[in-house]
């Protein structure tokens, strides 16, 4: 469980969070979105106890991460966007670090390394950046911490690597975890996300399960301006040649399709329109 109440945090020159609230009570895969510099990585570090709130309370699995209680550290795994690894092999990493995570599965680690096509005994110093990232993610996934925080996990992975990552995270053994993924790769990850969080202007602008978004919003591509003019409840549209991808209110009973990249742009440029559609559809948000 993750509970944040009244969080304020800023760096010397940048105020990032002010009265920020967030509650994640259910297991699932949460996509954390926001513009560059909106504070996503900072939020993950606050949850992992690497940064401390200046006001308010952050609670993860019933502990305040700032105390860095070993009982919590065994339950939370953060894979930062940039990391430094000792020059070990994946197998040596397991031998030296798995003991910190009581639920770590040696068997799953081996399977994930196989999925990622990594050799257990090859040293990190001999691996490419993407291969190192896969090795660290295989370890993090196999740790089975109840809370898993991934900062831009697919950055630096090739197309096959992204698919491998999605295939692993969608496996049933991860269903009981809270997985928070900060990403700009909205389209890439939309099939595995169950819930969307959007951070904007020091607040949580949107927190909604994917099915709720599908009930409230309709997204598609109009062939031209005339077709776009026929779309009711238009919230956002853009131009791609003659085509007009759009986000509109879903006025029917059937759930619409959710394209996270379009939603991201709609939220960035017409947040009020999206939130209004959520209110009108009476689906939970924030
Ligand atoms: N150690 C630091 N010292 C001072 N300012 C920082 C520090 N780390 C981050 N910042 C600033 O805080 C803001 C938020 O940074 P953060 O990395 O959390 O954003 P982000 O949403 O993850 O960004 P991106 O999408 O670009 O990865 C940025 O303006 C950044 O310059």
Average of the residue pLDDT scores: 93
Helix content: 25-40%
| Helix and strand sequence | EEEHEHEHHHEHEHEEHEHEEHH
3D shape: globular
- E-strand count: 12
Query: What is the CATH class name of the largest domain?
Result: Alpha Beta
Low-confidence stretches: none
If you compute it from the alpha carbons, what radius of gyration comes out, rounded to the nearest whole angstrom?
A: 20 Å
CATH architecture of the largest domain: 3-Layer(aba) Sandwich
CATH superfamily membership of the largest domain: P-loop containing nucleotide triphosphate hydrolases
The overall number of domains is 2
Pfam families: ABC_tran
Protein name: ABC transporter
InterPro entries: AAA+_ATPase, ABC_transporter-like_ATP-bd, P-loop_NTPase
Keywords: ATP-binding, Nucleotide-binding
Describe the structure concisely for a colleague.
By secondary structure, the chain is α/β, with parallel strands linked by helices. The chain has helices at 40-48, 70-73, 90-97, 106-115, 129-142, 159-169, 186-189, 210-216, 225-229, 260-269, 271-280, and strands at residues 2-10, 15-24, 28-34, 55-60, 76-79, 147-151, 178-182, 195-200, 203-209, 217-222, 234-237, 244-249.
């Amino acid at each position: 469980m993750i509970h944040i109440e009244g969080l304020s945090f800023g760096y010397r020159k940048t105020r990032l969070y002010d009265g920020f609230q967030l509650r994640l009570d259910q297991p699932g895969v949460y996509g954390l979105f926001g513009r560059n510099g909106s504070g996503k990585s900072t939020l993950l570090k606050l949850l992992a106890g690497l940064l401390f709130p200046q006001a308010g309370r952050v609670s993860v699995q019933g502990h305040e991460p700032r105390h860095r209680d070993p009982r919590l550290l065994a339950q939370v795994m953060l894979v930062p966007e940039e990391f430094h690894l000792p020059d070990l092999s994946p197998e040596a990493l397991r031998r030296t670090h798995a003991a910190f995570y009581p639920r770590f599965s040696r068997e799953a680690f081996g399977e994930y390394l196989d999925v990622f096509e990594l050799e257990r005994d090859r040293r990190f110093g001999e691996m490419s950046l993407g291969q190192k990232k896969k090795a660290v993610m295989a370890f993090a996934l196999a740790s089975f911490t109840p809370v898993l925080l991934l900062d831009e996990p697919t950055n630096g992975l090739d197309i096959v690597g992204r698919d491998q990552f999605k295939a692993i995270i969608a496996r049933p053994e991860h269903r009981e975890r809270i997985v928070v993924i900060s990403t700009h790769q909205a389209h890439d990850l939309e099939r595995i996300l169950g819930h969307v969080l959007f951070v904007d202007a020091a607040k949580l602008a949107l927190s909604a399960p994917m099915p709720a978004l599908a009930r409230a919003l309709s997204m598609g591509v109009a062939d031209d301006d005339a077709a776009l003019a026929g779309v009711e409840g238009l919230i956002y549209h853009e131009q791609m040649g003659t085509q007009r991808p759009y986000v509109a209110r879903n006025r029917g009973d059937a759930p619409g399709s959710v394209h996270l990249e379009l939603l991201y742009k709609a939220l960035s440029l017409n947040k009020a329109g999206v939130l209004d559609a959520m209110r009108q559809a009476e689906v939970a948000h924030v």
